[in-house]
Write a structure and sequence with these properties.
Length: 341
Amino acid sequence: MVNESSKNKVVLFFKEKFFAHKLTFFAIVLFLLISVTFAVVCFVYRGGKNRSGVVTPLVSTEEVAKSRSEDVPPNENENVMIENSSKEGVDLNSKAKEVGAFKPTGVSIKDYSKLYPDFYTQRPEKQVILEKTVYLTFDDGPSERTPEVLDILKKYNIKATFFVVGNFSQFGKECMKRIVAEGHTIAMHSYTHDFKKIYKNVESYLEDIYKLYKLIHDVTGVKPSIFRFAGGSKNGFNKGNYREIISEMVRRGFDYFDWNLCNNDAISRTVTPVSKCVDSVLKNSKNYNTAVVLMHDSKPKTTTVEALPKIIDGLKEQGFSFEKLSNKIYPVDFSLIKPYS
Ligand SMILES: [Zn+2]
């Protein structure tokens, strides 16, 4: 009885208050329709928001590829993609490509293409990874040590790589010519080697490295295609802009090489003992299948030259072959940071 009575009361209530007022009824229906539409629109666009909350249209995979090749090194976007995806709770397998179209945050890619329009190189379509191979590299030359290093390499019939600086003296130029004439790779390091100056911003880095590119080309006729950052690809002076510098240099086709072995000839201002130079390489080289050895070509580094034959003999005994670096060599394994991530 109680239920019957309350049911009647409800029916009566609707009859009197709502159905009697058609306008109120239609207003409620309209309100509900608008609410549902709004909710659906919000749901659909949620997947297209980037981290700053701006709604961005989803793009095709072709556009993703285009934005990669133009703005950032390969894989750079993939990291951001994963970060964005997980933050947005998007299924990586089905959405990763689409979300990956967003430009990386924190790396402001300016357009540097108007600077030095002749400062480009062509990266080969295929690069190689060579088994049980060592790449001897000499930084900071030419110097009084360069002819001595070249003589040793000639004796062993080994090709190496020289990351040179802006030594424009007649002697320096002769050394550069000899490096090329004897079949070694001449590569860019830095014109001034002045960390504060070159790592101030991307423009100052480009200014320095382009000056060196021109010098090498003018002196030897070779247009270098690889480089090594002064101080390594990530150092105390380029923390804020190394990604942007890498992006710009890689966009221009240049690959860079750090190292995974060194003879420790630059650990202090005093000369490193020969035995330490040798041991630093040979004790660690056993752990590698391919290795880039960092050494220095500068006037005080007399023990670098003295240690070189012992290092070569030791590496030969360990079964290594010797090669020079070039842009045909896949560079990923030889970086302090992964070059493309
Ligand atoms: Zn250097």
